[in-house]
Specification:
mainly beta, two-stranded antiparallel sheet, globular, 5 strands
Length: 94
């Protein structure tokens, strides 16, 4: 039996999730990366401006704070189609 306690199957992990806590999506992230949101974002200073960020992890990482998804599967039972945003009007996914 293989251990499935990895980011891709965790409740707290969001595939291609935004590193910035106030963003809705990160179009520059690779498909295998996402953000871990088990803990509050950490404040970092970038060019004398404080920003709050979540840690970015690879989908195959293991974590002690892992929690299974309720709907089963790596995308919580839904089909998630991620695509880069061209304009703000494209934020609504099909």
């Amino acid at each position: 039996m293989t251990d499935c306690r990895r980011c891709a199957t965790c409740h707290w992990w969001q595939r291609m999730g935004p590193r910035l806590a106030n963003a809705s999506r990160d179009p520059s992230a690779s498909f295998e990366e996402g953000t871990c949101q088990v803990h509050a974002p950490v404040v970092q200073v970038a060019q004398n401006f404080p920003v709050s960020v979540f840690p970015v992890t690879h989908e195959d990482r293991f974590c002690g704070d892992w929690k299974g998804r309720d709907g089963g599967g790596p995308d919580d039972g839904e089909r998630i189609i991620a695509f880069p945003l061209v304009r703000a009007a494209n934020k609504v996914a099909a």
